[in-house]
Queue: 2 jobs
Job 1
Amino acid sequence: MLKLENISKSFPQRGIVLDNLVLEAGEGDSIAITGPSGSGKSTLMNIIGALDRPDSGDVKFRGNSILNLSNNELSGYRNRNIGFVFQDHLLLNHLTIRENILLPLFAEKISSNEYTEKLSYCDLLAERVGITGLMDKFPFQISGGEAQRATIVRALTGKPSLLLADEPTGSLDAKNAENLGSLLVELNREFRITLIVATHSVDMASRMALHMKLDEGKLKV
Ligand SMILES: Nc1ncnc2c1ncn2[C@@H]1O[C@H](COP(=O)(O)OP(=O)(O)O)[C@@H](O)[C@H]1O
Ligand SMILES: [Mg+2]
């Protein structure tokens, strides 16, 4: 499904961050990427999610390179295929949880039928992650763990085939981190969504089928 071929990326002040890195993910895989702070996990996740470009190498999604897509095509690629969850929930405080979750749907033109369908899918997901009663609250009225579950619903409402989670439990306490870890694995199985998680957490990493370590710009098993 996803193939990174000899990806390299440097930053002027830092030098080489990713060095001829190779990664393959199949449909439905779950992969943990660990590595110390500054090892390049976020850089790698951003390249997979087409938020950043490598200096060299290729990124292929279902056989097609995404690197020669135009900006328009790239945002289409992201909207159709990829869900993001970050360390900080990035919910907007002046919108309700439901409005926050539905916001990405307005990035693309969709028919009203499609909109209705996604609305009910969003309610189903909210029920699945246990935030149905919180949909009309504002982000500051709910806990960090609840907010992170809301971002998972937001990430999945567009039915992506690939979920990228960058330190999703980074700002949660141990109990909430554990719950979020089990939830991600359950969603990976139930929806057969491919899951790539960058994490510091040994517990989270151990839940994934494959655990890779980012070391000196390369991924090692
Ligand atoms: N946009 C950028 N400009 C300059 N340096 C960057 C940029 N993004 C990341 N870096 C540097 O690249 C290295 C890897 O960062 P990052 O991918 O965020 O690591 P991690 O997520 O593993 O903590 C760090 O040294 C960081 O300072
Ligand atoms: Mg990071």
Job 2
Amino acid sequence: MKTTQLLATLVLAFSTAAMATMPMVDGEVRKVDMGSKKITLKHGEIKNLDMPPMTMVFQVKDPAMLEKVKAGDKVQFTVDNVNGAMTVLTIEPAKK
Ligand SMILES: [Cu+2]
């Protein structure tokens, strides 16, 4: 049915847009673990996950991201729940 197809297309378009506009989160790197491909971040509020500030371990979308940062770095990152795992999607040095 055409209406259903249109709705499905709209939902897809909106969720793609939501991903692209994932809010930037302020953080500070506490530990980079290349071996297990994880990063420990002290982070500010994560609005898209409804999470208050805390220090916690995240997975990363791409292990190469871990080569760009080190413990002590102030960063801005985006994160989402990917199949139940809090996963950092992007990370970059905080703008001064
Ligand atoms: Cu957290």
